[in-house]
Design a protein that fits this description.
It is built from 17 helices and two strands. The protein is an all-alpha fold and about 350 residues long. A hairpin with a 2-residue loop joins strand 1 and strand 2. Helix 3 crosses helix 11 and helix 4 runs antiparallel to helix 6. Bound molecules: 3-methylbut-3-enyl trihydrogen diphosphate (2 copies) and magnesium ion (MG) (3 copies).
């Protein structure tokens, strides 16, 4: 298989997804200002990686692509809403996104917030109202897709991660008990990205020998910040990244499996793949913020340093961060190796997600 074959397949999937998004917007009956704001951000040409992951996971499990389209559109809507809100002055305060001025710069803060709200609710409506000609999707399957999306997007997933990301800004976890509480909450509610992920990060020696330190146990988040080791900060950072970004990416894989009749083993393999590339993707994003070209990125670089964000390159340097991302991609590819040739596109995409320049 050639790299250009992968690019062609990727483009085909993007075309299908964008057509479905346009169709959904065309059917909407909203005030003009809201429609303009939603369309401005949703149709601004993002990479569409999350919906592509939904389609690929569906394909690997032998599903029908048409059954995966509503969930694919829904996850792109949630992702786009998360970007609009992430850019707000009260969050990352960014002026550019997807090669354009950010939503609040063009439409004002109130409409940007409401466009995000509209996309979030539209996502659930898109899944809930799907109808297939063959009638093969039943109410229980729709409920399962809604549950997966809600759990990936909410307090144990993306939104919770965004809270932790903001609290970690400027190197000071002002409220470490709060961070620990969020993580324990995630654990209590069975979120894979909770303490299990922290333990996993530790078990896989997330960063052994970082500045001569080896992490062998779950760090005590109540430690005074200045006493916290680099290794324990990395475990905390990996948890933030797994929640704010990894949860939606892992959710995309889960949705793809749920739109086919995947068995438990296939679901587990895809979930493992999703958790690995979810973290790897945000490490790549952190790296691009340092090394990337803002014209290609479509957003301003250097913002993480401006804001004092806790990031992988900030903690570990560029080379160690790259090595970690590559190690995670390898782990992701190994997790889906048993699918054989059927998982070739997924493996290609995993590589693209960390080797990209935009
Ligand atoms: C950017 O995501 C935000 C992160 C979670 C790192 P993408 O890099 O997938 O953004 P788009 O969708 O291509 O614009
Ligand atoms: C964003 O992370 C994660 C989201 C949930 C949107 P970043 O704040 O690093 O994303 P960019 O760099 O602004 O795209
Ligand atoms: Mg952010
Ligand atoms: Mg941001
Ligand atoms: Mg970033």
């Amino acid at each position: 298989m050639t790299n250009s074959a992968f690019k062609v397949h990727l483009q085909e999937m993007r075309t299908v997804i964008e057509a479905a998004l346009v169709e959904t917007l065309d059917r909407s009956e909203w005030p003009n200002a809201l429609k303009s704001a939603v369309e401005y951000s949703l149709m601004a040409g993002g990479k569409r990686l999350r919906p592509v992951l939904v389609l690929l996971a569906n394909e690997v499990c032998g599903g029908r692509q048409e059954d995966a389209i509503p969930a694919a559109c829904a996850i792109e809507m949630v992702h786009t809403y998360s970007l609009i809100h992430d850019d707000l002055p009260s969050m990352d305060d960014d002026d550019f996104r997807r090669g354009r001025l950010t939503s609040h710069k063009v439409f004002g803060e109130a409409l940007a917030i409401l466009a995000g709200d509209c996309l979030l609710t539209l996502a659930f409506e898109t899944i809930a109202t799907q109808i297939t000609g063959a009638g093969e999707i039943n109410g229980l399957q729709i409920a399962e897709q809604l549950r997966i999306l809600a759990s990936a997007a909410g307090g144990s997933g993306m939104v919770g991660g965004q809270v932790l990301d903001l609290e970690a800004e400027r190197g000071a976890f002002v409220n470490l008990e709060n961070a620990e509480m969020h993580i324990q909450h995630a654990e209590k509610h069975g979120c894979e990205s909770g303490a299990a992920a922290v333990q996993k990060a530790v078990d896989s020696a997330d960063f052994p020998n970082v500045h001569g330190e080896t992490s062998t146990s779950i760090p005590d988040f109540r430690q005074n910040n200045s006493n916290r080791t680099t290794a324990s900060r990395v475990v905390l950072l990996s948890q933030i990244h797994r929640m704010k970004t990894g949860a939606l990416i892992a959710g995309a894989l889960e949705l793809g499996a749920a739109t086919s009749s995947a068995d438990a083993d296939s679901r587990n393999r895809l979930q493992h793949f999703g958790h690995c590339i979810g973290l790897a993707f945000q490490i790549a994003d952190d790296l691009l913020d340092v090394t990337g070209d803002q014209t290609k990125l479509g957003k301003k670089s250097g913002r993480d340093a401006d804001l004092g964000k806790l990031t992988y390159p900030g903690l570990l340097g560029i080379e160690s961060s790259r090595a970690k991302a590559e190690q995670l991609v390898q782990e992701a590819c190994d997790a889906v190796a048993d699918f054989g040739d059927r998982s070739r596109w997924l493996r290609e995409l995993a590589r693209f997600m960390v080797e990209r320049d935009h």
